[in-house]
Amino acid sequence: MHVSSEETAGNVIVVTVRGNLDLDSAPSLAVGLDQALSRDEPRVVVDLSRVEFCDSIGLSTFVVGHNRARAAGGWLRIAAPTEFLEQLLDTIGLAGRLGVYATVDDALAGRPDT
C-alpha cells in the first residue's frame, strides 16, 4: 500500500491511498492521517479510488480519523470508493456517518454522493 498527501488551495489535505488497506498497511494510513489531522480545524479528504481491498482495521482507521477531525472542529470525508468499498461502508452503516463522495472534487466542494 502507498499513502500520499497533498494540500489544496483551500487548505484541505487530500490523502490518497493505493493498494490493499488491511492489518499490515493500516498503520501507514494512520501516520498519514495523523499528520493531516494535526492542524487546527483539520479538513481532510481520503481518496480511495485506488484501494482494492479494505478490512475492519482499515475501516476503523477512517472512524478514528473522522472522530479526531470532528473533535478538532474539522472534518474527514471519504472520496471515490470503489463499488466494493462503497457497498461495504453502506452495509456496516459508516457511509452516512463518515460522508462518502463520488469524487475528490465532490468531497472538496461538499457535494454529497447521489
Structure description:
Helix 1 (26-36) packs parallel to helix 2 (56-71). The chain has helices at 26-36, 56-71, 83-91, 94-98, 104-109; strands at 2-7, 13-21, 43-54, 75-79, 100-101. A 5-stranded mixed β-sheet has the order 1-2-3-4-5. It has a single domain (2-109), classed as 2-Layer Sandwich (Transcription Regulator spoIIAA), CATH 3.30.750. The protein has 114 residues and is an alpha/beta fold.
Features of the shown structure:
single chain; about 110 residues; alpha/beta; Transcription Regulator spoIIAA
Poorly predicted regions:
none
| Gyration radius, in Å | 12 Å
Assign the CATH topology: Transcription Regulator spoIIAA
Helix content: 40-55%
Kindly estimate the percentage of residues that lie in beta strands according to DSSP: 25-35%
Number of helices: 5
Count the strands? 5
- Provide the domain count: 1
Average of pLDDT: 93
CATH architecture classification: 2-Layer Sandwich
Write a brief structural summary.
With 114 residues, the protein is an alpha/beta fold. The chain has 5 helices and 5 strands. The chain has one domain: 2-Layer Sandwich (Transcription Regulator spoIIAA), CATH 3.30.750.
Give the arrangement of secondary structure elements.
Elements: E1 2-7, E2 13-21, H1 26-36, E3 43-54, H2 56-71, E4 75-79, H3 83-91, H4 94-98, E5 100-101, H5 104-109
Parallel strand pairs: 2-3, 3-4, 4-5
Antiparallel strand pairs: 1-2
Helix pairs in contact: 1-2
